[in-house]
Structures are given as structure tokens and as C-alpha cells.
């Protein structure tokens, strides 16, 4: 207390001459003495980051080492790139890698543009309560547990579910959707749209409110139709938001909703449904080949990191907007 | 010319129609599952139940609610959520408060340590190995500790703390209040709105989580209720059994599944209309800074 007290006036008197010079001259010793209470608040969170975030990153060394379950956290001895060579020669790996790219690509294709469209449509609604109602309803799936979502999907597409009732009404035979590999991607992507489209509009709606009304007035004076106003004023107005979200989406492109796939797939649909994350879960945790699975996981994380970095630098060069 | 053209009126009608479809499609699965939960076995099995219960009954509810394991798991979920949310809230507040102090030496490093973990994480296997070798399996801590801080939430809270007027804290410091005292007596009482948002973010995410429980709990009486539901639906996804008996078992599970889904959703659905705006404002606050 006394320390904080005494530093306040010193700081106030020191501030003006400090501005032209480098403020970096304050030493760590002084900073610690002055702000030890603040630093003490950061200790527990830092311990958390160290143990539960950074230690697992280092733990990836088991991808290059022989690991015995129950043995050393960082493995027993070095084996070099053995596990990497193993999975690169594993046809199942390439199968699940292809599935991941296809599912991720389809998800990006639908889940990125649809919130933009919904936001534009919502933006045209002039009745406030109606707009609020549609928003409230469309955000709802975001708040559900993925297990509940999977349960809802399974009920809806089951043989006695509502989609098959519709098919039967049209005189078609019922389809066992969830056991049919040809339907998995459709089920995955459409339920993903159902879950995310409403929540995805929030940032766009916020960006839409910041567009200057004068721009619309000018466009109208120039005789632009509503459609052209949308094209030339509205879309450029939300472009930075779109690019930011696109970068984030591309970065998480390979991190296909692991939990949802795990809940929805089954051995009958593995050929289209099994993704890298579920494969490494089965190989690593179910079958106990930890090092092999860790090698696959590390490979996947690195691709993810490369995707974010390249999407970011691409958009900086092409569009002049980037995350950092 | 500024007035409403015919084309625009047509557009408004079409727009209203499209949005009505969006609302209907979003709500449909909920209504469907609700209808099934009140329907008879026979009616569900023969595919008669769509949006209105057929063969109305509440016996399935009675059956699920009389299963002691269901209640044990439900209580576990409540307990895990309360403990995890409390810990997460304290840690997040502390770290966000530290990060909001612009003058602090090493602040950039502290921000970097947190933000880097948003883009790169250890992955499933190293995390699993770590939690197992720390001896956290089959304890509450396997669910709580690995997810104790969400960096996104830290950034939301940091943005809020930075928006508070500096003068208040300076005045408190002049009055002889230390950092802890200022945080507890001046800052937190002004931060009720953001604390409520954080509380909801964490509570909903812990309430909904299942994978940690599924991964680290071996005994049924330790499961959160989401894992209870997962085990019910896992029977329905594995289409490998074709024998008549398991077919019957799966079908019974259909109405039980519906009831369990409804009972797990219920608390969230009840508070949803009131909490939704906090979430939206939280996301905006995070997005502006993040």
C-alpha cells in the first residue's frame, strides 16, 4: 500500500520528461517493487497457462520419441521421424485426410457466406420486434451442448423421424440416413449451418450499423437502386469483418468439429465421416498408440498454423486487411 | 424516388417469407423432439409423430426421472458447473485486470503468452497424457483445470476494464487503497455487467461440455449428464446390431432419448431469453478488441 502510495506522485512528476525518452528504462526491480500486487494476481493464471497449455505443446515431443503408457510424460527414447514416416505411408491416414479436407471445404463453402446473407436480409427488416425475434430464435442452437445437437439430429433423421415421414408422404422408401456413408456430409454440413448461421450474423450486424448513412444518400442521389446500394455501399462496409472471419475460418478449416463427428459417425460411415481428429483419437486413446497419434496431431496443428499465417498474409497483400 | 418502389415491396414480402422459413427450420428440431418426448412408443415407432404428440403420455418422463443414475449425473453436472465457473471467473478476472494495466512492465509478454495459445495448442494426445499423469482422472479437476481460462473471455474482460475511467482507481490509490482493495472495492462493483456475462459464458460452456467427462471419467456415477445422454445416443448411431432384441432396445431408447434431451436443454431454454443479450454484448466487446 505504502509503495503504491509513494509511487503515485513520483510517477506524476516523472511522466513529462519521460515522454521523449524511452519509457523502457524502468528496471524490472522497480516494476516488481511498485506493482508486486498486480504481478501476484497473474501468478495463478500463468501457472495455468504453463501447465495446461505450454506443457502439452512441449509434450508433442512424444511424436519423435517412444512413449510407454504410464511412463515418462515426454517419452523414453528418440526414434526420429519414424512415426511420421509410418502415418505418411498409412492409406487410412490419407483417407481420413481427404475426408477432413472435403468436410472442412464444404463447411467453409456454406457456413461462411450464409451468415452474411442472413445479416443482409435481417438488416432490411424495418419492424424492430420482428428483427429481434428472428435474431433470438436463430441464436438459440448456439447455446446447446453438442451432445444435445447430435441427439436432435439423430431424432430428426432417424427412420421414424420427420424427414423420413416426409419421404413416405411422397411415396418414397425411408432412408437410414445415419448409417449411409453417402449422406454423412450432407447431415454434417446442414446441421452445421443450422447451428452457426444465426450466431454468425452478430458481427456483421454490428458492422452494418457502423456504415455511414450519408453514403446511402449519395448513392440514392446518383440513382442507385436498392440492389446497387447493397453491392456498392453495404458489402464494402462489412468487408473487413468478412475478411477477418474468413481468415479465422480458414485457420480452423482442418479442425473439423471433432466432437460432432465423434457423436454422429459409426463404423458404417467411416469411409466418408472419419476425419483426422477422430482417427487420431481412436488410434491414440482407444488403441493406445500415443506416439503415432501425437505425430498425426502435430502434423495437423502445423498445417492449421500455416493456413492461418498464409491466409493472413494473403489478405494483407490482396485486401489490405489482416488480423495482425 | 426515395419512396418505396414496387420492386422493394416485393422484396420485403419475399424477405419476410425467407426469414419465416429460417425461424421455422431453426425451431423445428426442438418441436419435433418435444413432441416425441410426450408421445407413445408405438406412435413414434410407426413414424406418426412430427410436431404434435401422438398417444400423449408422461410415463417416459417418469421412467427417466426415476433412474437414479440420471439424477446422480444431473447433480454432477450442476456441481462441476458451479465449481468450474467459480474458479474460471476468479482466474479470468485476475488475469484480465493485470492485462488492463497499460503501465505494467511485461504486459505485452503476458498478453502474448495468452494469445499464442489461441492459435496453437498441444493437441488431444499430449493433453490426455498430461491429465492422466497428473493423476486427475476420475476427479472433478480433469474437467475444471484444463479449461480454467478461456483467452477469448480474458480479452473481453480486459477490454471492459480498460474502458473504466482511470481517475477512479487513482483516487482510490491516493486514499491508500492497495491493488487488491481497489480491485475488490472499486473495480468489481463497477463491473457487474461484464462479470455476469463472463459467468454466463463459462456456466453455459461447462454445462454443455461432455468430452472431458467422457475422456477422463471411468465410473458411471462420476459422469456429467451430457455423457449420460451420449451413451444413450451412442446405442442409436452404431447400426451394426441387427438382432431383433437390440432393435427393440434402440426403439425404446428413442422416446427416452427425447425426454433426456428435453431435460438437459430445459435449464438453458428457461434462462435463454434473459441471458441472450449478455452473450451478444460480450461477443461484440471481444470482437472490437480481439
TrEMBL record, chain A:
For this UniProt record, the keywords arranged alphabetically read as follows: Membrane, Transmembrane, Transmembrane helix, Transport
Q: Where in the cell is it found?
A: Cell membrane; Membrane
The ABC transmembrane type-1 domain covers 97-311
What are the annotated GO cellular component locations? plasma membrane
Q: Where is this region: Disordered?
A: 1-24
What residues form the membrane-spanning segments?
A: 36-55, 96-122, 142-163, 245-265, 285-309
What does the entry give for GO biological process? transmembrane transport
Which CDD domains does the record cross-reference, listed alphabetically? TM_PBP2
Composition skew (Polar residues), residue ranges: 1-10
Q: Which Pfam families match?
A: BPD_transp_1
Mode of membrane association: Multi-pass membrane protein
Keyword Magnesium annotated: no
Task: Give the family, as the similarity comment puts it.
Answer: Belongs to the binding-protein-dependent transport system permease family.
Q: Which PANTHER family match?
A: POLYGALACTURONAN_RHAMNOGALACTURONAN TRANSPORT SYSTEM PERMEASE PROTEIN YTEP, PROTEIN LPLB
Give the protein's recorded name: Carbohydrate ABC transporter membrane protein 1 (CUT1 family)
Species in which this protein is naturally found: Actinoplanes italicus
UniProtKB/TrEMBL annotation, chain B:
Per the record, GO CC terms? plasma membrane
Q: Which Pfam families match?
A: BPD_transp_1
GO biological process assignments: transmembrane transport
Spell out the PROSITE patterns in the cross-references. Answer: ABC_TM1
Question: What's the protein's topology in the membrane?
Answer: Multi-pass membrane protein
* SUPFAM superfamilies (UniProt xref): MetI-like
UniProt subcellular location:
Cell membrane
Keywords, alphabetical: Cell membrane, Membrane, Transmembrane, Transmembrane helix, Transport
Q: Where are the transmembrane segments?
A: 16-35, 78-98, 110-129, 141-161, 193-217, 252-275
Q: What is this protein called?
A: Carbohydrate ABC transporter membrane protein 2 (CUT1 family)
User: Per the database record, which ranges form the ABC transmembrane type-1 domain?
Assistant: 74-272
The record's section on InterPro entries has: MetI-like, MetI-like_sf
Q: What is the native source organism of this protein?
A: Actinoplanes italicus
Question: What family is it from?
Answer: Belongs to the binding-protein-dependent transport system permease family.
